[in-house]
Specification:
Length: 403
């Protein structure tokens, strides 16, 4: 009788230590990806309230939803970096770190000697990441850079919304874009360090990141001469492609990508074989030119059906479709449940539901989904690991240098 003694592969960042002076979303979401992959992440916060995202709301059982989302699996130390003793503690942490990430206001890190250039000179193996709004130079370098402002500067808002009204994305798209480039930048720099032995600087700006994501409308405009129009849930050059109301009050989105699909839609869903070959609808160019009439045909047919029946018919006809879900429905999505995507993470407010990271590593150890830390929860243990005595820690706490 044989016993399978195969051990799962360790998480890829097991043994990597990250120190982060971070706040809001862009840097914290980047370092959370690193924590999920096994890195030890030490989050450095202000003693007087910590990361200001802790106070955005109280929706997650009294905790802030942004903070819970972006900060699981980290250790929190509360340090006053304006006090030389606090800065000395930080350098004690950096001496044993592989990665440093910061997204302080432009110029603040340099004033503290924590910009990537200074740190890489002092710690040659360190990967030092500067996350900013607009970059270190140029006329916008010192502008405040909140997510919505960068969405506007990057033109995202100009292509999102209805013909009458531009709208921002409903998620912090600029923050997330910068976070994911910072995350991938760290991975690339660690790979390079494995070859050269040297860490190095990583620079990511929210504007650069979101401008890259604007690739399609940007190239369309630069090379075609016209900015894509805002079309709500519709598509500027494909019809039918929109969300349509169903008899039970839901909305179902469908997309017809070619004329063969139109003929199937007309015959099997609209039950109008007469329009399948009608020159007014037979080609995408014709349907787009007659968008109102095309949409009216689809709306009339789906308006007689419940959402479940509409989706069943569309799928049977081979038409791409989706239910226009609410966020609450996403939380109960059957596909996420069927694939066992939910876990629980601990927090100061008790267990909280959280999704597994999108990066799957089959055959490896499970992602590290550690607790959401309380402010300064790990201050004492981190200071003791640096060799400080109880008396020294008490003195720092008394003077407000740590919390």
């Amino acid at each position: 009788m044989s016993t399978d003694t195969h051990q799962p592969e360790p998480l890829p960042l097991d043994g990597i230590t990250v120190v982060a002076v971070e706040q809001a979303v862009s840097a914290p979401f980047a370092t959370r990806q690193l924590a999920d992959l096994g890195a030890r992440v030490v989050k450095v916060e202000r003693p007087d309230g910590g990361d200001f995202a802790r106070a955005y709301d109280t929706a997650a059982q009294g905790l802030a939803s942004h903070f819970v989302w972006a900060n699981r699996g980290k250790e929190s130390i509360a340090l006053d970096l304006k006090d030389p003793r606090g800065l000395e503690v930080l350098h004690g942490l950096l001496a044993g770190a592989d990665v440093f990430v910061q997204n302080l206001a432009q110029g603040a890190a340099a004033r503290l000697g924590l910009d990537s250039a200074a740190l890489c000179a002092r710690y040659p193996r360190l990967v030092a990441v500067d996350v900013s709004g607009y970059g270190a130079e140029g006329p916008y370098a010192h502008k405040r850079a909140y997510d919505m402002l960068v969405q506007c500067e990057a033109g995202l808002v100009s292509v999102t919304g209805t013909p009458e009204q531009p709208v921002k994305a409903g998620i912090p798209a600029a923050d997330i874009a910068a976070a994911m480039y910072a995350f991938s930048g760290v991975l690339a720099a660690l790979l390079r360090r494995g070859v050269t032995g040297h860490g190095g600087r990583v620079e990511v700006s929210m504007l650069d990141a979101l401008a890259e994501w604007m690739g399609h409308p940007l190239h369309h405009t630069m090379h075609g001469g016209e900015q894509p129009v805002r079309t709500g849930l519709a598509h500027a050059v494909i019809a039918p492609y929109d969300a349509y109301a169903t008899a039970d009050g839901d909305r179902v989105l469908l997309s017809v990508q070619n004329d063969r699909e139109w003929r199937r839609l007309a015959r099997h869903v609209l039950e109008r074989p007469d329009v399948a070959e009608d020159p007014a609808y037979a080609t995408n160019a014709a349907r787009t030119a007659n968008r109102e009439k095309t949409d009216a045909l689809v709306a009339q047919a789906l308006g007689r059906l419940g959402a479940a029946e509409a989706i069943e018919r569309l799928e049977a006809a081979g038409i791409a479709c989706a239910r226009l879900n609410s966020v609450a429905r996403l939380a109960g999505h059957p596909q996420l449940a069927a694939r066992d995507r939910w876990r629980e993470v601990d927090s100061p407010a008790g267990p909280l539901r959280a999704l597994l990271p999108p990066i799957g590593l089959p055959g490896g150890a499970a992602p590290h989904m550690g607790a959401v830390p309380a402010l300064g929860e790990h201050t004492d243990s981190l200071l003791r690991a640096l060799g400080m005595s109880g008396a020294q820690i008490s003195e720092l706490r008394r003077d407000g240098v740590v919390a």
